What we know:
By secondary structure, this protein is mainly α. It has one helix at about 10-25.
Amino acid sequence: xxxxxxxxxxxxxxxxxxxxxxxxxxxx
Length: 28
C-alpha cells in the first residue's frame, strides 16, 4: 500500500520513490 492512494506507479516510478524514501530516512 503506497502513500499515493488510487495511483498505480510503474516499476521505474516505484523504484525512484523507494530510493527517495531511503535517502530521506537516511537523513534522520
